[in-house]
Each structure stands twice: as C-alpha cells, then as structure tokens.
Amino acid sequence: VRLTDVVPGDIGWIDQVIDRWDGSSRWSLRGQTPPLPLMWALLWDDVVTQQAVRDDDGHAVALFQLAHVNLHDGVAELAMLADPEHVAHLGPLATAFLARVFRDFPLRKVTFGVATDERSITHCFGPRAQPSGRLRQHRRRGGDVYADVELYEMWGGSR
Amino acid sequence: VRAREDGEWIAAGLVRWDRSRRLSLRGKTSSPKLVRGLLGEHVAVQQSVWTDDGRPTGLLQVTELRARDGFGQLDLLLDPAHADALGPELRSFCAEAFETLPLRKLCLWGCTDELTVTRYLGALVHQVGRLVDHERRGPDDYADVLVYELWKDDLA
Questions:
Q1: CA of A137 to nearest chain B CA: how many angstroms apart?
Q2: Are B78 and B93 in contact (CB under 8 A)?
Q3: What's the pTM value of the predicted model, to 2 decimals?
Q4: Residue A159 pLDDT
C-alpha cells in the first residue's frame, strides 16, 4: 500500500464505501445516503492536506485528512476513512502521514473522534492515540440504538 | 436577541464574562461581523437574560443542532456576578429547548479558565472529556477544554 494524492475523481470510490467503511467523526455517516454536495464538502472544505492509501492494484483502502487547522492554538482535526479489512496494514502509512503533518504545520497535537462501532481505525495509531473523552450515545444507528463517540488526541514531538 | 440592538453588551461580555468555547475570542477583538456570526450562524434557538432593572446578564444558545443524532451544543455567555439568578434561567432555557427541539442531550465545551459550568448547572452536567492544553493563552501557556453533557432525562 502507498500514499497518493487525492483528486476530485476520488469522490466516486468514497461514495461507494462511505456506508461500509469505518470513519472518524467527520465521516461517520452510517445508515445515511449523503448527497453529493455533502460528500464534496467532506472531501474538500476546511481540509488543508489529505492523502489516499491505495493497494498495489490501485484500489483505495483509506483516506487521511488534516482538517480544521487552528494555528493559534496549534491544534487540528485528523479525519479518516478506512476499509476495516485493511486497517491492520495501515499503521506505517498513518504514521508517515502524521509525521508529514507535524513537519509541515506548526501544530502541537491533532484530535479526532470515533464512534465505538467504527473504532477499528484507532488501530492505525496504536497507543499514540490517547483517549480524552467519551460522548455517550452520540451517533444514531437506527431506532433507539446509538453509538458512543470516543475522543482521542495525538501529540507531536516528545510529549 | 438581535445583533444590532444587543451587539454592544455581547461584545463586552465576550471578554469579561464566563463563556463556552464558541463564544471565546481567544485573544481576538470583537467586531460587528463577528457578533453577527455568533448570533446568526448555526443557531437553533437563543435567548438573552436581563435583570429586572434592565441590565443584560447572559446569552443562552443551542447551536449546531443534529436532529438525526438528537443532540446540539449549548453555548453560554454569563455574567458571573449573577450566577445564582442565572442557574434557574439556564435550566428553564434548556428544558424549553428539549421540549421544542429534537434533542436528547446538549453538549457543552468550555475552557477551564473561562467557564465553571457546575456553578450554573450543578450536578445536572456530567463531564465526559478533557482536551489537555488545548487553547493557547500565552507562550507555553495553554488551557484545558472540558467537555460536558446535559441529558434531557436528567432535567425532567
């Protein structure tokens, strides 16, 4: 697998997988059919850098984004969308993306939220992702079923 | 609440009063455009609180409503000199929001040095998270952000 740039045409494969893959809060849309303008906004609005992960056949297996950069406080949101079957192999590329983020932007840490039924993506970062909170019953999954959202933060440098 | 009429006291309150994260200027200065945005963008319902003799003491907002998931954000700008009186008004505002909007809970984000939410809502709010050293206050000086939830069932 390798990191590649994201192009407008990538909206096509994202539309195909958004209901099945695990995502961070930004992409947590299970059970919904998001309209194209929303998909477009998720892919480009407030995103300062992003890369897709593709396998040797060129098929996308994940998307990493840096969004909502706040240079005043030195924090930003890390957004992810990943095929749960490939998460186990994404660690090195997730680390590489994170290293590039902390190299290219004056950030102290990045944060992200993950619904408990999509938490496989936290495995990309291992123990570096430190829990910072848990929003209870935060994402509706149908009827009276809700998933909690766990909050995580990851620090740059040697904290 | 109207930006034109209320802008002046809100702008003053933004730098002096207790406030949730959305209403924190973080070193910036206020402007009419900024106040218009805070009062007009992503706001589901809002009310101001006044004393009997006509002095403003608070701005209460529900913002970022997510009807599908049944939650919204509670944003507050409160004069701490009237904390005792503001508590009941705040509870009443939240109760009405739960009645009129598709809400199960309200989430509140506030910096440790800008809002002691338990002062106004007591044990009704539950702290569910803490973002460490999240907002800059000066060189190598950062404030934590605390995350709270207020559930409809707890207010009933």
A1: 8
A2: no
A3: 0.89
A4: 63
